[in-house]
What does this fold into?
Amino acid sequence: MRAFLKTLFGDLRNCGVVVVLIAVEAGLVRAGLAHVAPLVLPPLCLVGVSWLAWSGRRVVRG
It folds into this structure.
């Protein structure tokens, strides 16, 4: 069961990136800036993925 949950959710860093993305998107929609979300979210996703890749590489070396 633990392996299933690890596959489904990843680790805390993955969940943290997803929570930040959802919070930014919800904030933009609540502020009435839903038309800006398609412009903001893709670069923010790339930043999150690059942070995950960088932090994962650091853990492997350390």
